Amino acid sequence: MDGLAVPAAILLLTLGLCLLLAVPLVKRQGQKEIRSPAEFNLFYEDVSFLTADHLQLHGWWIPSPASTRTVILLHGYAGSMDPDIRYAPSLHKAGFNVLMFDFRAHARSSGRLTSVGALESRDVHAAINLARAKGSQSIGLLGFSMGGRAAILAAPYPPVVKAVISDGAPARLVTAITQDLLLRKIPPALGWLLARMILVGASVLTGVNLSRNDLHRAAANLPGTPVLFIHGGLDRYTTSEELNKLMQLAGTRARFWSVPEAKHRNIEDTRPDEYLEQVLSFLKENL
User: What pTM was estimated for this model as a whole?
Assistant: First the structure.
């Protein structure tokens, strides 16, 4: 028994450490910024809707008169819908309804745990259902970082989803976590180990195998759907090899736009006019 007790104790201690390391990643994210469509004189409706696992999400519905085309905005990790309100006026002016909401365990929405895209894919489906209930016949998804991950992981989509834009979505969580640890001055070998421990702990806490929920696996469900991948050339969270593989798997209707001087999710700051042109032209072409 003693011979078995020691390995079992080591295993339990290791699992406990994995869980402890994962808490900062999956914990609830509070409200950091408060904005409103009223800042841009946009008429809007406060909406709430339920996910398949019975969490209540809160958002804004910004209608465009007589339009059946809708763009759903999907915010990034540890954020909320508020900063992304800056995109709404241009989308609305282009004739799209806009649906924005806070992901589970973020800001106004309910939930205790975030999974950086895996569980959030259920939120995407719930938002699509709401847009359809509002009369949307053609829907586009515009996701930023975690929101882009959730958009891709939500595939395959209902027939009304005609276009998907993923801006800065990390292809593999283990790469993104490792790079974040390196930025925090963690030595590479230790960062590699800690990233995998964090993923183990996060998978246990969320009940989802996050190591298997990468975009390469989800890309198998994308062929036939027009997808635009937007990437900053200096974005550390996805390697060029991962991006190349992702494009190969995503199908012939996938496009790729990279800006060499841009970092993670700041292309709209480095090339604001071109960014807006790329997004709007892709949505207008496919919705």
Answer: 0.95
